[in-house]
Amino acid sequence: xxxxxxxxxxxLGEMHLKIxxxxxxxxxxxxxxxxxxxxxxxxxxxxxxxxxKCYESLDDxxxxxxxxxxxSSTKSHFEIAEKIIQNGKHxxxxxxxxxxxxxxxxxxxxxxxxxxxxxxxxxxxxNPAILALEKYEIEPLFIESHRLAQFNPRGADVSVIQDLMIxxxxxxxxxxxxxxxxxxxxxxxxxxxxIDIANARIGFENGCVANITASRxxxxxxxxxxxxxxNAYISIDFLxxxxxxxxxxxxxxxxxxxxxxxxxxxxxxxxxxxxxxxNPMKYEQEKFFEVIKNNQKEIVTLEDGLTALKIASxxxxxxxxxxxxxxxxxxxx
Length: 333
Prior knowledge:
Layout: E1 2-7, H1 11-26, E2 30-36, H2 40-50, H3 58-63, E3 67-70, H4 77-86, E4 90-94, H5 101-110, E5 118-121, H6 128-131, E6 142-148, H7 160-176, E7 180-188, E8 197-204, E9 209-215, E10 222-229, E11 232-237, E12 242-250, E13 259-263, E14 266-272, H8 280-294, H9 302-332
Parallel strand pairs: 1-2, 1-3, 3-4, 4-5, 6-9
Antiparallel strand pairs: 6-10, 7-8, 8-9, 10-11, 11-12, 12-14, 13-14
Helix pairs in contact: 1-8, 4-5, 5-9, 7-9
C-alpha cells in the first residue's frame, strides 16, 4: 500500500488530486492520505470537496504518508522536499525542482538511497506526441521551439524561463544527448518585474543548435517544436498532441500518396505518427507509482531536474546581461 499525500492545493494541486483519486479507484495499492496547504481555508475547501483528510501541519502529512506530491510554490519546494527526503519518503515534485541550483544539489546529497524515489514533474516527457517518437531514431542537427501562453498570475512567481521554457529545455536535453557548449539569450519583462518573454540559442558540443522562444504574454497558446536532422524534419505539437515526420527518400521507396517530388529521383514522404490517447498527468503519476512498486529508475530523475534548472539559470543570466547592456547603451545615448 502506498499512502500518498498532496502538498499544495492550488489549481495544479487540485488537478493532481483529481488524477490521484482516479488512480486510487483502479489501483488498490494506492491510497490518499490527505492534503496540506499553508492556506488553511483553501486546504479545508479542497478536503471537503474531494472528501479527503486535511492535515494541520507539514510534519503530520509527511509522517502519515509513504509518498508525497509537492505542488506548492517554487520558493517553498526546497524546505518541503528537504523534510520529505530526510524522512525517507518517496517524492514527486513539480518543476522547476527548486528555486536555486544549490538547493537542488543539496536535495541530491540528501537522498537516502536508490530505493527512495524522487521524480520531477516535467510533464511534457509524458506527452503522447513525444512518447510516439520513442521508436524512431532522433539525431537533431537543429531544433526550434515556441511555447507561448496567455498571462496567468499563477506562474508569475518565477520567470517565463523557469515557468514555461524549462519544459522545452528538458525535452531538448533528452533528445540531443550532448553537453551544452554555449548559450546566448535575450528577453524582457512586460507585465511583471521578471522576464515575461525570452529567446535562447543553445549550442551543443555535438554541433546541434536549439533556438527556444517562450512567452507568457501571447494572445494565443502555442507549444510547438521542430526538429531538423539528416534527411528528416519532425514537427511536434504538444498542445494538439500530434507529431508528423517528413522523410527524404529515393522516389522508388515511396509508397505513400502523401509525398512530393524534389526531382533527382528524390521525394519527401509525410508520415503522421500514430499517437496513443494518453492523459500526460495521469500517465506521469502512474509511472511514479510503478517506479516505487518495482524499484525502478525514475523516468525524470532529480538529476534531470537539476540539469534543466542549470541551463534555465544560465539563460536567465544571459538575459539579465542583455537587459543591463541595453540600459547602459540607453544611458550613454
